[in-house]
Design brief:
Radius of gyration: 22 Å
EC number: 2.7.7.7
CATH topology of the largest domain: Rossmann fold
CATH architecture of the largest domain: 3-Layer(aba) Sandwich
CATH class of the largest domain: Alpha Beta
Distance between the termini: 52 Å
GO molecular function: DNA binding; DNA-directed DNA polymerase activity
Protein name: DNA-directed DNA polymerase
Helix content: 55-70%
Largest sheet: 5 strands, parallel
Number of helices: 17
Order of helices and strands: HEHEHHEHEHEHHHHHHHHHHH
Catalytic activity: DNA(n) + a 2'-deoxyribonucleoside 5'-triphosphate = DNA(n+1) + diphosphate
Structural class: alpha/beta
Number of domains: 3
GO biological process, one term: DNA-templated DNA replication
CATH superfamily of the largest domain: P-loop containing nucleotide triphosphate hydrolases
Length: 340
């Protein structure tokens, strides 16, 4: 097995292994997948003067022409040096293309594959984990330790310092997506520039909930019947490159959690259900969660979840129309919530 252990990930990504020219990055944190892919691609391209040395391929196109990946990897760089290929997996199956590549790996090329959250023992993940010519790295959401390191590093690099309570406040708003977390920290640093220290007031004034690229905001606004706010959060997530099926999947999970809370509220009260929720609901989300619970019955939530599941399937089958499919489904949810 060539699945890289979490403790070895950083060391593995700091060096290019020519014996394992294929790197698969996947997992629930799409921002971390993107960040690690960019860094590894830049490292692989170091020393090359070929402006065409980095090739970006779309997974859905490769799925329709499996031989193209092998051809691209085997093409000799125009000005010499290493051939570097970035492949982003879409909704279609790229296993045949990657399987052919691993069967006849190129002599001097590096292929970095970005994928979503893949199941163990299946498809692309199983193929790369079993191959001696590939590395497979899972990108999990940041832990508290990771977030502390990220915050302290960026704050130090900016020449600032941060109060302990401000760090704690900030950590509660980050964590679902590495790129989104970086963006929120950078926004905070710009806002606090010139101040002696970053305080909790600075955090509350400028940082929104960056977890999973504002996915909570999309779901909460939809179920609370706020279409304008939902559309704004959806546009932000889409602009950051979040796939429509990922957004809908997160909304479905929020809907399932709301359904459980609604059942608990039916057996007691909404306030008690919210306070007893595990994991605890962030205080900024509580007003929207309460509003959603007052707008939906358990039966109506079940019907909404079925509709969202249908939209999720449609978005996966047609990636090009995915954003339109997702936004339409979410606006329908928001409309149903407003009607109570």
């Amino acid at each position: 097995m060539v699945a890289v252990r979490p403790a070895d990930v950083e060391a593995t990504l700091t060096r290019i292994d020519p014996l394992r020219p294929v790197l698969l990055l996947f997992g629930p944190d799409s921002g971390l997948v993107r960040e690690r892919a960019r860094a590894y691609l830049a490292r692989a391209a170091e020393g090359s003067s070929d402006p065409f040395g980095l090739v970006r391929l779309d997974g859905d196109e490769i799925a329709g022409d499996p031989g193209r990946l092998v051809d691209e990897a085997g093409t000799v760089a125009l000005f010499g040096g290493r051939r570097v290929i970035s492949l982003r997996v879409g909704s279609r199956n790229v296993v045949p293309a990657v399987e052919a590549l691993l069967a006849a790996p190129p002599g001097d090329a590096i292929v970095v594959i970005e994928a979503g959250d893949l199941k163990r023992g299946q498809g692309l993940r199983a193929l790369c984990e079993a191959s001696p010519r590939a590395l497979a790295i899972t990108c999990y959401a940041d832990t508290d330790r990771d977030l502390t390191r990220l915050i302290d590093t960026m704050v130090t690099e900016a020449g600032l310092s941060i109060d302990r309570d401000a760090r704690a406040e900030l950590m509660g708003l980050l964590g679902g997506d590495r790129l989104a977390s970086r963006g929120e920290i950078a926004k905070l640093l710009l806002y606090a520039a010139g101040e002696p220290r970053i305080t909790a007031e600075h955090v509350r004034a400028i940082v929104g909930d960056a977890s999973s690229l504002a996915l909570d905001e999309i779901a909460d606004s939809a179920f609370a019947g706020q279409p304008t706010e939902m559309a704004s959060a959806f546009a932000k997530a889409s602009g950051e490159g979040m796939r429509a099926d990922i957004i809908l999947g997160s909304v479905c999970r929020t809907g399932q959690a709301l359904h459980l809370l609604r059942l608990a509220a039916d057996a007691g009260s909404i306030e008690r259900a919210i306070e007893s929720a595990r994991p605890a609901i962030h205080f900024r989300r509580k007003p929207l969660i309460e509003k959603a619970l007052r707008s939906w019955s358990a039966a109506r939530l079940e019907a909404a979840l079925l509709a969202l599941d249908d939209a999720l399937l449609a978005a996966r089958r047609n990636a090009a129309l995915g954003p339109a499919i997702a936004e339409r489904a979410l606006l329908q949810v928001a409309g149903q919530a407003r009607r109570g």
